[in-house]
């Protein structure tokens, strides 16, 4: 080949190679940039809750180097750095960088994978040394206006005034109050008003309160309201404790007797009922056991309850047979476990039982069946009736009660028969 022809062939090849190298160099930064901050392409599967395309977002979360909020219906790829914002409840994620240390967390104590941070209001001044302990319970915001609370406040007004003979109007108002009593805000509203509390306790103690067909009896409704207000609401219970002596001294309009004389009376109807006729008495007993369960979280009220033969009245609920009583009996069983026998559930052991076990002969008689020593007899009877259910509450109560009896020591001078 002639030298001139070889030079002409080599030059275009050399230019092509130089152009290719330059193209690779220019493409590398662009690729690095796109990998750190990807943006959805036309092929990305989107989620659209409205017809506005600007409000759509990728079904699979697109991470970047910064934390972004993860929507509830988005899917997360593996290997991301995910965290939960405890103030907003939102999940946030970004590209994971191994061994990355967040400078904002420097010096803060960490317990395993959980960051321990004392909450503090934005721009709040530091807490002075020796200041009283801050109680988070009770710092409750009023619910949003959309809550339908008119019946609740109508019931409050009628209970305060004593005008409780309003028939269906009052019954409907009580129903509205029960619906909201489980809310911490409304539970406090109920318990911070002594007149309302007295009205509710009088209703709960009045087994003869009138009730129309299809309407929840007022004593049951009042018990359910008190149970809801006290459930997981220690501030509400504190309000009741502060008024307790005055509540028990209060004379209810229906009989002009102090509440203390009727509050610890029987939960059961005076006549024996069975079958469908037992449904309403059983529902009443369950509601009243729920209210008692909330009240005896207080050490002082629990001591008074035990002294006033409260456990005998609870045992009456275990005596009837029939599926209509199952829910009420379970409520009573859980109350006894959580309050007196199961330390893992907060029970203070050694307070009850305070008597030895009675014999089966004693407990099988009408006169002796509700003696405190007969709890074992009735629990064992219920356990045998539900032997196919390995997780039935009666089995746990039977075993723990047997252990408590074993550890029971009779007071000095007491001679067991």
From TrEMBL:
What GO MF terms are annotated?
Answer: adenyl-nucleotide exchange factor activity
* First and last residue of the signal peptide: 1-32
Q: Does the keyword Coiled coil apply?
A: no
Going by the UniProt record, its keywords in alphabetical order are: Endoplasmic reticulum, Protein transport, Signal, Translocation, Transport
Q: Which Gene3D superfamilies match?
A: Leucine-rich Repeat Variant (1.25.10.10)
Classification via Pfam families = SIL1
GO terms in the biological process aspect are: protein transport
InterPro entries on file: ARM-like, Sil1_fungi
Entry GO CC: endoplasmic reticulum
- Note whether Signal occurs among the keywords: yes
Quaternary structure per UniProt? Interacts with KAR2.
Which protein family is it in? Belongs to the SIL1 family.
The protein's name is: Nucleotide exchange factor SIL1
